Automatic annotation (TrEMBL):
InterPro entries: Glyco_trans_1 (IPR001296), Glyco_trans_4-like_N (IPR028098). GO terms for molecular function: glycosyltransferase activity. This is Glycosyltransferase family 4 protein. Residues 17-175 form the Glycosyltransferase subfamily 4-like N-terminal domain. It holds the Pfam family Glycos_transf_1. It comes from Dawidia cretensis.
Length: 373
């Protein structure tokens, strides 16, 4: 089977959408080596995350030529459909919520939709961006023969917000980056703590510091922990204007010196940061899937996260759940993980069993079922 991929973010993005694109191509090319996989991208580059995948004999890269080298947007949205290799494809898969116009009828069209947060929470986005994102997603879902949602929550949002026929939606989960399978030694964890001036014990949260992530509520929860239980909170992620609210909450809660921000942590240090944590807490109000939950579970860390949205799908029995609007409820569950050793071990064991469905071989199999169905 010859699969083509819209692969811009495969080459240009080294967080969410880029990690997803590389995960998909890596898993398929490894576990279904008889297939042929062509990546269509307006830009290419060499990088340690990219090179091992594109060097495989069953992976090919196609970039624009001629005048399209200067018209990347036009090539992605229309020109790529005219490339000679397109007619040889069995499937064209848009990995990031977009499909070009004009693909031949003979090519099966698949698109992955990660989330519709910009429709559910438009106040977090510029109005023009909401309009553009919605139009692109609607067009892609209309062109697609099959729409892949990365969670049941996203599948329901597709029906509710874009009126996509539920009969053409397939839920295929995503896995986390393979770096989180690494077991980090005690010495390396100590070196990473020293590098970032972290305490021996800490509560961890990972993600962009934006209001939807609800971290100020986590700060309130930490303040409610018994003094003999309370440990510092480490926040790893890019800062936005929302950081001011977190800092203000910490100051008002008397925790200003116990909330630690890491805005420039190296991705290579993430396994040590996760594995060195006592508990990972993710009180987000809404996500398309919540990949940090899988990263934490893969790292062997007990998890506390929110009720609702997709969080039960991502973490299963590997987490405790609390109302994200209630600092008291969050504090109760965090305190349990810090105080009950048996519970901690059970969460880690149950979580690792649950996330077997997110492993590369399982995801590759589900994608093949969509392609062939």
């Amino acid at each position: 089977m010859h699969i083509g991929f819209e692969a811009k973010r495969f080459f240009t993005n080294f967080t969410g959408l880029g990690n997803y694109a590389r995960f998909v191509v890596d898993a398929l090319s490894e576990f279904y080596p008889r297939g042929h996989y062509t990546l269509y991208s307006p830009k290419t580059r060499t990088h340690p995350e990219i090179d091992p995948i594109v060097r495989r004999s069953n992976v090919q890269v196609v970039a624009p030529t001629g005048g399209y080298r200067f018209l990347h947007g036009l090539w992605r949205s229309w020109g790529v459909s005219r490339h000679a290799t397109i007619k040889t494809l069995d499937v064209y898969h848009g990995l990031s919520q977009e499909l070009p116009a004009g693909l031949p009828a003979s090519v099966k069209k698949v698109v992955t939709v990660h989330d519709l947060i910009y429709i559910r929470y438009p106040q977090f986005y510029k109005p023009v961006d909401v309009a553009i994102y919605k139009a692109k997603a609607k067009a892609a879902c209309t062109r697609a023969d099959r729409v892949i949602a990365i969670s049941q929550q996203t599948a329901q949002d597709l029906v509710d917000f874009l009126q996509v026929d539920p009969g053409k939606i397939d839920v295929v989960y995503q896995g986390c980056h393979p770096i989180f399978k690494q077991s980090v030694s005690v010495d390396v964890r100590a070196q990473v703590r020293q590098k970032y001036n972290l305490p021996d014990r800490y509560i961890l949260n990972v993600g962009t510091l934006e209001s939807r992530k609800n971290v100020h509520q986590l700060v309130k929860a930490v303040a409610l922990l018994p003094r003999e239980t309370r440990i510092p909170l480490v926040l790893v992620g890019r800062a936005t204007a929302y950081k001011e609210e977190i800092v203000r909450t910490a100051r008002e809660s008397g925790l200003e010196d116990q909330v630690i921000f890491l805005h420039q942590a190296s991705f290579q240090d993430f396994p040590a940061l996760y594995q060195g944590a006592e508990v990972f807490v993710y009180p987000s109000l809404f996500e398309g899937f919540g990949i940090p939950l899988v990263e934490a579970i893969e790292s062997g860390v007990p998890v506390v996260t929110s009720t609702g949205s997709c969080f039960q799908e991502a973490a299963g029995d590997g987490a405790l759940y609390a109302d994200p609007h209630s600092a008291e409820a969050l504090a109760h569950q965090v305190a349990r993980t810090l105080q009950e050793a048996t519970l901690r071990s059970q969460l880690v064991e149950d979580g690792r069993r649950y996330i077997q469905q997110f492993q590369p071989a399982a995801i590759a199999q589900r994608l093949q079922e969509v392609y062939r169905g």
